[in-house]
Write a structure and sequence with these properties.
By secondary structure, the chain is mainly beta. The protein has a single domain, classed as Sandwich (Jelly Rolls). It has one helix and 15 strands. The protein binds calcium ion.
Amino acid sequence: MCTYKTFFQITTLAVAAICASLVGCESAAGPTCTEAKKPATVLGPYELDEEGFITNWLIVGPFPNPGERPDNQGFHVDYLKNYGGEAKHVSFNGMQIDKDDGTSVKWAPYEATYTSSVNFFEVDHLELGYEQDDILAYAACWLKCEKDMKVQIRVGSDDGYKLWLDHKIIGEEHVYRAAYRDQESYPVKLSEGMHILLIKVDQDYGSFEFMLRVVTPDGSKATGIKVYN
Ligand SMILES: [Ca+2]
């Protein structure tokens, strides 16, 4: 029998569970992101470069992106669906992702050294061919903030991308273009602690790269942030 007291307890637990599952809320100044749950071990810490670019990432791929402009088909396919899904995925070094064709790939670290851009053709473990077309890849990292802060996450990409912060999508550009810095800018409020970034970048043909930096609203490097993979 469901008494009023029992109903109240169940309702309270349900509300608590829903609240616990939320990671922030929207506001006019961009999403407020609270600390996300990280895996037991992470690589790092690494520094943002002098302009705020993240140059240390975990990367996994390639995944298929068949079709022709303007509608390559991989962009809207969740290749992490068996691993929490893109929105809930938590990557770690060495994590294996099985693909539908029976093969598998693994998340592994990559450091962009001579440029702030992540050129996927330079990522050895992706084993890509020269200017391989119709593919996509994911990159992820953690940001550890020493205090609450307001920042902008600025992205350039070739070709399009989807961007999640703390399991919430904050940017999506289904475009075909060359990459330049700061093509989009996303204002966010980060709480003290760890925050997970996941970006999915797709490729039709030609170059295949992205660059992402974390800056203050005036465009200078955000301070007080460490990067982990
Ligand atoms: Ca391209």
